[in-house]
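W.,

You were right to be curious about this one. When I first looked at the sequence I had no strong expectations either way, so I just let the prediction run and decided to look at it fresh. Below is the sequence, 416 residues in total, followed by the output.
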Amino acid sequence: MKKNYRLSPLNLIWLTLLCLAVVGFSLWFNLRSLEQATLQMVNIKGQTVFHLIQTTRLWNARHGGVYVPITDETPANPLLEVDERDIVTPKGIALTMVNPAYMTRQIGELLKGSDVEIHLTSLKPLNENNAADTWERAALIAFENESAKVKYGLVNDHYRYMEPLVAEKPCLECHRKQGYREGDIRGGLSLSFPRADIDGLVSGMKENVKKAHVGLFFSLWILGYLVNLVFLRLKSNLHSAAVKEQQLSNLAMTDDLTGILNRRSLMQAYEQAVSLAERRDWPLAVLMLDIDHFKKINDKHGHLMGDEVLVRFARSVSATLRDSDVMGRYGGEEFLIFMQDEDSHGAFSAAERIRKAVGDMRFEGAAPFSIHVSIGVAERTQLGCASAEELIKAADEALYQAKNNGRNQTCLAEAS
């Protein structure tokens, strides 16, 4: 008799509550992460605008203020007490000096109603228009108490950002009478961004997250009801995660361009091979390869062709090696190969095979050309069981000997 398996009403309730709890927590966490990402966007945008305004102010201050024509929009600043505040040009144009604070206020007027507003403020403002609001006052107090270096967050329907303004030497001419000294915090620059503008950047993501979690709820409910499918899904997910992890691990170990081992992974494998060779008293050969005149290839044929040379070079050399040989990119156009359980004679023969294979390669650049390689070979037992560092150094010196002897040749390091 075929049994009809069904979850009891109580179990269905528990399953539903469990799914709601899991999905609810995931939804809360993802929405919270998006909110944090939104605040980080505010922070980045605030930093950008602040440093742009501050750079403009510093330029003004270092020039001792700038003169502009007196207009209804830009009257003389009664709070600016400096010599030659107002002047008249030889053509009779009345000019007034605009200092950094006056300039900032005028920029703030121009930006009102835009997607970014600025407000110059201080706990001791010279101009009453620069008086701090409640949020700005709290930020300024935090700056002076050194409990914060920057302040940002959501206030009503605007995102706010604020950094302190530090008294610099060019600023003291206007602010010295307020008792400020160089390095003192004399106020702050407050920025305001409409909430709708910032939230609009992530609103679509939030909707997608919510829709995804609705689907997740039903998926979890069905998977909870069908235990076998849960098992299969879990197994599939674990397998996918393992594949991705392996892919990431491979990416971290290989050189982005050539696909062979990068220097870090190469040296890790090399240290292990040296340790094994020392324990078992095996020979171990190191080949140091350098493409001759590679810079000229880049200069004449371009860097894209230079990259193609490196890729094809790595493939050609790898094709000549044994499965037990290990090759990696040591740096630039320099490559390193180590051969386990291979004496100096075998390593030298392998180097010559590599050199011939490389010499047979042809390329079509600005004009057809071929390449050559110089190789230095060192083997630990021939050198008196050299250490890992000594072996690479000996191979490197042999490489330079090959280059000094005219390139496109192999030199074998000899015991001194």
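Here's what jumped out at me. The chain has two domains: 24-198, 263-412. And, maybe more interesting for your project: Residues 64 and 170 are 7 Å apart (CA to CA).

Coffee later to discuss?

I.
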